[in-house]
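Backbone-to-sequence.
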């Protein structure tokens, strides 16, 4: 087996019914599901099945996605134990990676993500904004556009650096719309307003960042058994004591996904396994490193593919 990194999906990958197949396919996960439910302040099965509304609301999306990704990860480990060289999560997925790497236990992970979700929802209500994908424009050009447009009360920044030619901007709605128009004028192939409830990974998340910082001071993080790559820098954590500031800054800073994959490639990682609903990260990795081998796991139907991938 070549060097392997496991990737965890972020917000936007959610879908009705996600994770429920793992419970029917692997009944021993019911105990894990029960433990997850004890840590949540809403009915997870009702939310995932659609019996309860709100799966697309940040307040519920984040803990639901982390819970689902943990279920898929534990399902795969029960069927085909895998020891990766690195973990990496995309934005929200970073919290699943905290659990998988050993930095946090199950209860702490779910408490932390619920606190983050509520803080981001509150911040979005207090400081409304929007996000948009910008396709086919260079980072330098888009960065210049954002800098020219931004002023106090009219802020737009690059929120996600996903892959070559795929960037996401975030900020005040009018500023984002102005940047979308200017990006089109300067050669962007397409601009797409994203269906999200706030200006994530931008300065508009400052109050959420402060709330996360306060909550992190109540947590004793553990050393990881497997290194993680962090969104804020695209590199591993320097020391354990830096972890709170990394999580605090992540919510208001750009997600350095392209840099993260480039770093892993430089470390000799040539196999990437995405765990969680969908395959968004699988497609991004292929754009960043066309030579990489990449697969996704969404249940036992993918098991044979994973076995072949591991050879």
């Amino acid at each position: 087996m070549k060097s392997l990194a496991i990737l965890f999906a972020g917000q936007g990958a959610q879908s009705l019914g996600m994770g429920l197949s793992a419970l029917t396919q692997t009944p021993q996960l019911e105990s894990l599901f029960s433990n997850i439910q004890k840590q949540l302040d809403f009915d997870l099965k009702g939310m995932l099945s659609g019996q309860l509304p709100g799966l697309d609301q940040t307040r519920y999306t984040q803990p639901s996605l982390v819970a689902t990704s943990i279920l898929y990860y534990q399902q795969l480990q029960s069927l085909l134990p895998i020891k990766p060289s690195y973990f990496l999560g995309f934005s929200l997925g970073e919290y699943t990676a905290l659990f998988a790497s050993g930095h946090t236990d199950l209860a702490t992970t779910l408490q932390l993500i619920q606190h983050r979700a509520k803080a981001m929802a509150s911040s979005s209500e207090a400081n409304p904004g929007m996000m948009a994908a910008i396709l086919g424009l260079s980072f330098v050009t888009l960065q210049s556009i954002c800098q020219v447009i931004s002023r106090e009360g009219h802020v737009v920044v690059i929120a996600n650096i996903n892959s070559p030619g795929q960037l996401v901007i975030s900020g005040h709605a009018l500023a984002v719309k102005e940047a979308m128009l200017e990006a089109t004028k300067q050669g962007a192939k397409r601009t797409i307003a994203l269906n999200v409830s706030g200006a994530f990974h931008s300065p508009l998340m400052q109050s959420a960042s402060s709330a996360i910082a306060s909550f992190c001071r109540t947590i004793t993080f553990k050393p990881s058994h497997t290194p993680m790559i962090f969104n804020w820098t695209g590199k591993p954590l320097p020391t354990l004591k830096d972890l709170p500031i990394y999580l605090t800054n992540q919510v208001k800073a750009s997600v350095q996904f392209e840099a993260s994959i480039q770093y892993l490639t430089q470390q000799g990682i040539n196999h990437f396994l995405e765990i969680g609903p969908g395959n968004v990260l699988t497609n991004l990795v292929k754009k960043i490193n066309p030579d990489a081998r990449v697969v996704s796991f969404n249940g036992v139907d993918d098991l044979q593919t994973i076995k072949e991938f591991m050879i």
